[in-house]
Amino acid sequence: MNILSLAGAVVLVWVVWFALGQESAKGIDIYEQYIQSSGLAIVVGGAFGAAFLKSSTNDFKAAWSLLPRAFKNPVPSRVLIDQLVEFADIARKNGLIALESQQINHNFMAKAIQLLVDGQKPGIIAKTLEAESDAQSQREKHGTTYWSYLGEVSPAMGMVGTLVGLVSLLADMSSQEKLTSGMSTALLTTLYGAMLANMIFLPIAAKMRVQSEVEALNREIIIEGVAFIQTGGNPRVLADMLASFVTPDEAQKLAINSR
Known about the structure:
The protein is an all-alpha fold. 79% of the residues lie in helices and 0% in strands.
């Protein structure tokens, strides 16, 4: 669980709850003043409808499959490097076949090690892993774009709702009730669009983009590590080589450096 993501969600909920509580203390009916069904329908329905129109089925699936990442930490690169160094030591002592019995929780690494165990040629392994990594990055890019687009279109849908409210307001200004209703729709839809975009969709898209970059780096580490393991090189050399992918502080924490 990503503590900062959870804390951010809690803070956002608290801020909205606090603000509405302050309004309620003034004697304002929160439900009547801030919940406007037609405005919500325009913003929420319009945003998702536009996103559906823009996206393919695969983009939609990728977007929702990536959603849990916003609240999870990616596997630290240091952990993967430690595991690759350990595998290099095992392979050097007992051969590549000994890696078959190792427990691997990272899917991409599991596939890479299986290719090693199967005795594939170095060129085939590198080409296969690079192709899969590129495909994964592309899927993640499309999934992230879906959430970014929701963040972009939500304020626009809020503006649509504002115009609808203004048209209703200007169509009949003889009634105080109709005047208030039209102005309420005009303002609340803008509020809904801004809140959805800046408190939900855009932060999620930004977090997914960062997570995708981290995972791409991890896959690159794995590809380099597997290529080195296949040569039967010294694990210490592998650790030094892969340490360039992480910060100096993280490199100092590598298991091989703490012995």
